[in-house]
Design brief:
The chain has about 120 residues and is mainly alpha-helical. The protein contains two helices and no strands. About 0% of the residues are buried.
Length: about 120
């Protein structure tokens, strides 16, 4: 009679282990699903943040481009003004302008020749 009791105990242990194994499988499936959901949420958050940062970078780029255009237009206008001023002065006093240009050329030539020695 001792044998059936140990056989029954053995069967009980097998049943308990089988139930434990099934419980572990169920918990593993639940945790895997929970991790998939968390990964999906994280992926969505990263995509949203990435889109926000891309949009912000595009706005900053556009602002920089607009500022650059404004600076270029301003510099171009000033250059044109100085060019017209210079042309007018040269036309008013051609000999003085030629003399000044010659003097500046001689000075630059002497400076370049002096640096080669």
């Amino acid at each position: 009679m001792a044998r059936p009791a140990s056989s029954s105990a053995r069967q009980d242990v097998k049943n308990d282990l089988k139930a434990l194994k099934e419980d572990l499988k169920a918990v593993s499936r639940e945790e895997a699903e929970r991790l998939r959901e968390l990964a999906a949420k994280a992926d969505e958050t990263v995509r949203e943040r990435s889109a926000e940062m891309k949009s912000r970078a595009q706005r900053l780029y556009d602002q920089g481009l607009e500022s650059g255009r404004e600076y270029y237009d301003d510099a171009s206008e000033r250059f044109d003004e100085y060019q017209r001023y210079l042309v007018e002065r040269v036309q008013e006093k051609p000999l003085a302008s030629t003399g000044i240009a010659l003097g500046v050329g001689v000075i630059i030539g002497l400076l370049l020749a002096g640096s080669r020695r």
